[in-house]
Write a structure and sequence with these properties.
Blueprint lengths: L5 H4 L18 E6 L24 H5 L4 E7 L4 E10 L12 E9 L5 E7 L7 E5 L5 E7 L8 E6 L5 E10 L9 E2 L9 E5 L7 E10 L2 E11 L3 E4 L8 E9 L2 E2 L6 E3 L11 E5 L6 E5 L7 E11 L4 E8 L30 E3 L1 E4 L2 E4 L7 E4 L12 E11 L2 E3 L1 E8 L5 E9 L4 E7 L7 E6 L7 E13 L4 E11 L4 E4 L7 E17 L3 E8 L6 E3 L13 E4 L2 E4 L13 E5 L2 E5 L3
Antiparallel strand pairs: 1-9, 2-3, 3-8, 3-9, 4-7, 4-9, 5-6, 5-8, 10-11, 11-14, 12-13, 12-15, 15-16, 15-17, 18-19, 19-34, 20-33, 20-35, 21-32, 22-25, 23-24, 24-32, 25-31, 26-27, 26-30, 26-32, 28-29, 28-31, 35-36, 35-37, 38-39, 40-41
Amino acid sequence: MRKKSLLCTLVLAWFTAFAALAEGSEVVSILEENFNAFTEGSETAPASTDISSGYTGKLKTTLTGWSGSKVYEAGGSLKIGDNGYLQTANTDMSANGGNLKITFRVKAIDTTGGVIQLLLNSTYSTTATVYVDDNKWTTMEVIVGGGKENGYLRIKPYLMASGMLIDSLKIEASEAFIGAPEATQPTQADGTSFTATWKAVAGATSYMLDVYTKNGSTKEYFLQNEVVSGTTKKVENLDASKKYFFAVRAQKNEYVSNYSNEIRVVKIIRSLNTPVAKEATGITDASFTANWEPVNDAEGYEVALYKAETLKKDSMVNMLHDDFSGFKEGTLSVPSYPSNYSLDDYTSVPGWSGSNTVCANGYFGISPYADQPGYICSPAIDLSKNNGKFKVTMKAACNYYGTYKEDSVKIYIYNGNNEKIDSTTLMVEGRFAEYSFESEKGTGETYIYISYDNKGSYYKFFIDEIAVAQELAAGEVVTSWLGNTDVENVTSYTFEVPFEEGVSYAYYVAAYAPTVGGSTYTGYYITYIYSSNSNKVTVTAPTGINDITGKSGCVKDGAWYTLQGVRLNGKPSHNGIYIFNGKKIAIKNK
């Protein structure tokens, strides 16, 4: 599976920054709310009434001056829907220079977590962002500056399809609350130097920079506590063979913040040479080793493996089949939401993609969101044989928290040029049932694209099992992609695969390396670039035994040997790899 930008993986870790209080520093309590008055519903089943709507909503009548959108009671806590918000009343937040510590407990409803924006005083500018990586209660502590005499705090979740729960909100002010800087990805890095950059912290008078490598969990410092007056520092004379990291702290008089987020420094490159794949070695009846030449600046390689099988008789062949048993979280009544970046972790065949996807134990589906249809797209399938004739069969239903309905689903067929070459509308009726669709537009690179629009009804489309099949003749070769294997900076990889009669394999290699992407609008971040694919290498079974029927010996390393008890057209009784008439001969014990 291709690596994703590290900007995406930020949602797998939340960042919190707070300073240790200096002895004797004053702390002023600005606001504290435990939401105990909101008793309807529960954590697992929040109430369905939006208490922030209208002029007489319970949120406003219970907490004077508070406002929001998509806010629901949850048994002593509040639920905030995705892209909704909870906003405090206008409050004097200017004490101690407006240096604030915001503390709250949060729980994402979905297992995939999400992102929370904190907006202070302005609905248009994000003051801080925190990340939630699961659906467990977590206490967040965030330091921000800029508290005003007539200010407020707005809490807004996004990338949380089912929303979040919030409890125990507290805002305090102290001169000792110095926010940790936000370090940013260097846009100048050539292997021996880079320019460290970070965002300014309100009230900070200077910063302290650490640059280091890592030996296991031990940091080996190149710079430590380097005092910097601004928000950039060029670091030179680095060892190009080492990986460097940096972090920074803010200072204000005697107060020092916690460390910023850690930044990995990567050399900025724009392209990689194409690897050269070499012949396989170590071929046995159960494995072989793929080989390739190294590529400068590559951090690792992806090896794509294919299987080719010659049919012994006319057959209806599943060119793709998945029962989605890899999805184990959630139920139809309480579904879960998988990461679109890691679908290969769940599916039996790699390469699936989708948007607004949903899952339950043994089911993969589509959950349209915010009036936008969702989709699921299959991996690329070679459906060029049999004049492009193929059949799609799936067991599916439309369901909303355990309730079924009749609805329509669109199926589109795309080729490798992203051209829509066929389509149909599938009418789904009631409970799970089998549906099929036939086409004669198959190509060498075909994608099955399933789209569902619930028209705001909250229903979801689930697939229990899907198969794409073709009727093929004896002697035809069926090629299937077995997946991509991500290896580190090495030049070989051993595949454990069985060689059977009529089966061969092939592989090609692509190099990858980290670099810096993004823009001044989205921010800069580590992303990965890939080379073009190498030449493809075919690996055949190490047999050829039947080619020397009647012989009583074989050639090994150019010399002829007579083997006692050997039957060359049966199962030999001697171990080894031999060469006969230029062919590799696998000989193994009975």
